[in-house]
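Tokens in:
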């Protein structure tokens, strides 16, 4: 048991968590379904793209020197000798001085041509084309291999695949691709006060908000959420639902981690031989936070209020899920911004919900209203978190602050 009875810093908590993570095994999946998955191995091209010099526009393949001095008033007139469609053959087709070949985007450049003039700069009549502009060499001309060269390492192990990456896989003829498996993530809400969506609220009850935000976040970062429901505030009920969760790779619960009479999560961890690594982090919001592990399984006991539940997920759970899937880029971008409005803090790593704008190439940020841990609206309105370090208790308007861009991908 590590640091059980002491508060750890944000940096210590993140290190303890990531040191506990071993990436999952690989699996092969259809490339068309690979978006947001993490590559298990490098992708090295065995071809050039494009495979030959080709046209970047619909137009005419020409000898550039033929157009010297061409203008709207004094067009150059060239004889059209052939046409090449995208995917068409260039066998026997050659451009010589004084001639042009009609060509479509993606079609191979015929022998003799060193430029392409687009249709919009021409006019065709009676087998000839009039060119209205001086066209330089290699205009609208794509060279073989200018996109991807043979033996290029195009994608790297640990990359989380974007839509463009999936397109590259297709261009390299990947029907399937090897990626890390997705972790199955059990989600548990705790507390007698929670009401399911659709139920009538009784006096003293609140909606089970955390299940919805956590489910959405788990899906967003490429893992497989398994919502197990609400655990009532009894040891029996809570233990039963945690036992069901043990089949998962990761268990996330919200609530029940403070020092209240019915906060049983730490006791459940002990009963199930889950090794607690720490149980408090010097962060605001979200100081009560329990992290444990059992074999290769990870257990996150998040605070019960909706804002610290979500901010704790972003800071601690999200990087662990990405690392489980083999991702090498797991940190959210942090930039500097000018603060608009004072912030008072405490001696903790303080995350203030904020909204940034960019004016004259500079970032500006303002807090998004009520910062109480129960006010999820201010998180919904936020596009960043303003980071106030532990040793700073006040930041004045006009000063520069660090902001974490929560809607942007990892770096």
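Residues out:
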């Amino acid at each position: 048991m590590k640091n059980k009875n002491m508060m750890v810093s944000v940096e210590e908590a993140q290190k303890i968590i990531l040191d506990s993570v071993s990436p999952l095994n690989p699996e092969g999946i259809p490339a068309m379904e690979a978006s947001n998955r993490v590559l298990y191995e490098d992708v090295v091209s065995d071809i050039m793209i494009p495979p030959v010099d080709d046209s970047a526009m619909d137009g005419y393949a020409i000898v550039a020197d033929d157009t010297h001095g061409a203008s709207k008033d004094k067009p150059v007139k060239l004889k059209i000798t052939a046409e090449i469609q995208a995917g068409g053959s260039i066998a026997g087709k050659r451009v010589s001085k004084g001639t042009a070949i009609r060509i479509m985007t993606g079609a191979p450049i015929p022998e003799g041509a060193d430029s392409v003039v687009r249709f919009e700069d021409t006019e065709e009549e009676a087998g000839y084309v009039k060119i209205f502009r001086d066209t330089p060499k290699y205009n609208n001309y794509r060279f073989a291999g200018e996109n991807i060269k043979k033996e290029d390492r195009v994608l790297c192990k640990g990359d989380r695949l974007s839509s463009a990456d999936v397109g590259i896989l297709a261009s390299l003829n990947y029907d399937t691709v090897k990626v890390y498996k997705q972790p199955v993530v059990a989600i548990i809400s705790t507390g007698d006060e929670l009401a399911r969506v659709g139920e009538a609220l009784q006096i003293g009850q609140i909606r089970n908000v955390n299940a919805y935000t956590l489910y959405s976040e788990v899906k967003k970062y490429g893992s497989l959420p398994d919502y197990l429901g609400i655990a009532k505030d009894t040891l029996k009920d809570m233990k039963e639902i945690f036992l069901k969760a043990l089949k998962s790779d990761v268990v996330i619960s919200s609530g029940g981690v403070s020092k209240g009479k019915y906060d049983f999560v730490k006791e459940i961890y002990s009963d199930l031989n889950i090794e607690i690594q720490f149980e408090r982090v010097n962060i605001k919001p979200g100081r009560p936070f329990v992290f444990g592990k059992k074999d290769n399984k990870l257990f996150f006991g998040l605070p019960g209020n909706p804002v610290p539940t979500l901010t704790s997920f972003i800071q601690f759970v999200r990087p662990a899920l990405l690392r489980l899937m083999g991702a090498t880029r797991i940190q959210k971008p942090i930039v500097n911004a000018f603060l608009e409005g004072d912030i008072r803090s405490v001696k903790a790593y303080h995350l203030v919900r904020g909204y940034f704008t960019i004016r004259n190439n500079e970032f500006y940020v303002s807090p998004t209203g009520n910062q109480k841990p129960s006010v999820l609206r201010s998180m919904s309105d936020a596009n960043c978190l303003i980071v106030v370090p532990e040793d700073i208790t006040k930041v004045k308007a006009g000063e520069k602050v660090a902001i974490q861009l929560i809607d942007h991908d990892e770096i």
